[in-house]
Write a structure and sequence with these properties.
Organism: Rhynochetos jubatus
Order of helices and strands: HHEHEHHHEHH
Protein name: CFA46 protein
Shape: globular
Distance between the termini: 26 Å
Radius of gyration: 15 Å
Strand order of the largest sheet: 1-2-3
Number of helices: 8
C-alpha cells in the first residue's frame, strides 16, 4: 500500500486490484484483473499459477498487458500447508506446469509482452525490496524493463 501511495500521483493511471489478504480473488477475478490491465503485479505467497488456473490462463487473450511482474514464490508454514493440500488433489502434470518458467511461457502465449518473475523461492523481505526497486526505477526514474531487471540482477 505504501508503494502504491508513493507512486499514485506520478502518472494518470488507474490503479485497481486487490490488496491485503482479506479478499483473495477467485478464478474469474484473476481473469478480469489480467484482461483489464496494461501492467499486472502479483505480489503473493507460493506459485502464481497455484492461484490462477493454467488451463484457463492459456485460453486467455491479454494483448493489452504490456508488463507482468510476478513477485511470488514466498513460502510460509501456512502457505506451504495450503499448497501441499491443494497439490495432493492434482496429478503430476498440473503441478509440473505451475513453475516460474511455465508461468512466463503461458503468460507470453496469452499475449503479455514482458514478464518479470522470480525463478526460485524467496522471502517476503526480499520481494519487498524487489518491489521497491521495480517501482522506483519503472515509475519514478522511467527506466525500461530491461534496465530495471539489470539493476535487480546487480
Amino acid at each position: 500500500k505504501e508503494i502504491l501511495e508513493k507512486h499514485h500521483g506520478l502518472f494518470p493511471l488507474q490503479w485497481q486490484g486487490v490488496t491485503g489478504n482479506s479478499c483473495v480473488p477467485g478464478q474469474a477475478g484473476w481473469e478480469q484483473l489480467l484482461s483489464d490491465c496494461s501492467a499486472f503485479l502479483f505480489y503473493g505467497m507460493e506459485r502464481f499459477l497455484s492461484h490462477v488456473s493454467p488451463a484457463r490462463l492459456v485460453a486467455m487473450n491479454i494483448p493489452e498487458c504490456r508488463l507482468v511482474m510476478l513477485l511470488d514464490l514466498v513460502r510460509s508454514e501456512k502457505s506451504y500447508r495450503r499448497i501441499r493440500n491443494s497439490d495432493t488433489h492434482k496429478s503430476c502434470l498440473p503441478t509440473a506446469v505451475e513453475g516460474p518458467t511455465e508461468a512466463a511461457a503461458l503468460l507470453s502465449l496469452a499475449g503479455a509482452r514482458s514478464i518479470i518473475a522470480n525463478q526460485w523461492y524467496t522471502t517476503l523481505q526480499e520481494n519487498a525490496e524487489r518491489l521497491e526497486i521495480l517501482s522506483e526505477n519503472l515509475l519514478s526514474v522511467g527506466r525500461t524493463t530491461g534496465q530495471t531487471v539489470r539493476i535487480l540482477q546487480k
